[in-house]
């Protein structure tokens, strides 16, 4: 069973049932690396990573819609507040929106609220997705562990963990997307480095529960008819993700030990055109 709370001064590896706010604030004294953080470290630079950890990200409409869909599907998360308006142009609608956010809730315009419920309904009628989210599992579980190679603390928040008493343990991650077409998802998985998330989460479950787990993505489109695609990654993609995670942990460990979070560098950068662009321009203009 997951622990209900975390001690502010002492942290132990384990499975915890904490709020999203507690998780994103990083409950580990001294800091820990999440899957999102590992991907950000490699996609940008340590300085930008450090800034986002210290200042957080401002909520966007897209983020709130994703949170709402998660709540409708998983049944766990902040309250949803339906704003009976078509937009936020009126002072009344804006006040209701701001009041909801101040209370820790997620404000949704009427059509957004109805859309979140419709998405959940479609997902529940999808044969494979509904099976993955079958009753008996646990939603929004936080895993905290210490990486054996670098000694840094890591954390992940699992959308859905199947019944822990079942023979096969399964991690399910739910994502909303513009297109659930498998051809489009291939590029999205690479762009957002979801092949890092897969092994990162499995590392956490293995470290805490001592069990291997399968990892499955459930992608759902945000516009009608809210199509659903279930995805598992091949081993070669997972191995690349593992290698990327190892690099991110090394960077995090170095920055954490030195207190230095480098930016892009102070020297002049000599930057060429992308090879495909240079080749296209050469054919057109030379």
Describe it for me?
- The protein is of the alpha/beta class and 286 residues long.
- The mean pLDDT is 91.
- It is built from 11 helices and 8 strands.
- The longest helix is centred in the last third of the chain and has 24 residues, at 235-258.
- The strands form 2 sheets. A 6-stranded mixed sheet has the order 1-4-5-6-7-8, with helices on both faces. A two-stranded parallel ribbon has the order 2-3.
- It has one domain (14-279): Lambda Exonuclease, Chain A (Alpha-Beta Complex), CATH 3.90.320.10.
- The protein starts with 13 loop residues before the first strand and ends with a helix.
List keywords for this structure.
single chain, about 290 residues, alpha/beta, Lambda Exonuclease, Chain A, six-stranded mixed sheet, 11 helices, globular
Q: Rg to the nearest angstrom?
A: 21 Å
CATH topology type: Lambda Exonuclease, Chain A
Supply the CATH architecture. Answer: Alpha-Beta Complex
Q: Which bin fits the share of residues in helices?
A: 40-55%
H/E element order: EHHHHEHEHHEEEHHEEHH
Q: How many independent structural domains?
A: 1
Net shape: globular
């Amino acid at each position: 069973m997951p622990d209900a709370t975390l001690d502010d001064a002492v942290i132990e590896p384990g499975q915890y049932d904490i709020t999203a706010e507690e998780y994103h604030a990083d409950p580990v004294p001294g800091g820990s690396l999440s899957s999102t953080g590992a991907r950000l470290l490699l996609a940008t630079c340590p300085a930008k990573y450090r800034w986002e950890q210290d200042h957080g990200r401002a909520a966007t409409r897209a983020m709130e819609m994703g949170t709402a869909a998660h709540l409708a599907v998983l049944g766990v998360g902040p309250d949803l507040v339906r704003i009976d308006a078509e937009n936020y142009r009126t002072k009344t609608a804006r006040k209701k929106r701001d009041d909801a956010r101040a209370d820790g809730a997620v404000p949704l315009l009427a059509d957004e609220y109805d859309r979140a419920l419709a998405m959940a309904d479609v997902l529940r009628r999808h044969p494979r997705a509904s099976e993955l989210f079958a009753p008996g599992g646990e939603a929004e579980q936080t895993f905290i562990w210490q990486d054996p190679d670098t000694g840094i603390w890591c954390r992940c928040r699992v959308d859905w963990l199947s019944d822990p008493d079942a023979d096969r343990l399964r991690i399910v991650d739910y994502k909303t997307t513009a297109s659930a077409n498998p051809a489009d998802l291939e590029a999205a998985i690479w762009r957002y480095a979801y092949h890092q998330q897969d092994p990162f989460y499995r590392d956490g479950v293995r470290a805490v529960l001592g069990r291997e787990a399968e990892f499955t993505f459930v992608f759902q489109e945000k516009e009608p008819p809210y199509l659903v695609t279930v995805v598992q990654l091949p081993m070669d993609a997972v191995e690349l993700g593992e290698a990327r995670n190892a690099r991110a942990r090394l960077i995090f460990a170095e920055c954490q030990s030195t207190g230095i979070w480098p930016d892009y560098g102070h020297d002049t950068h000599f930057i060429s055109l992308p090879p495909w662009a240079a080749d296209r321009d050469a054919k057109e203009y030379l």
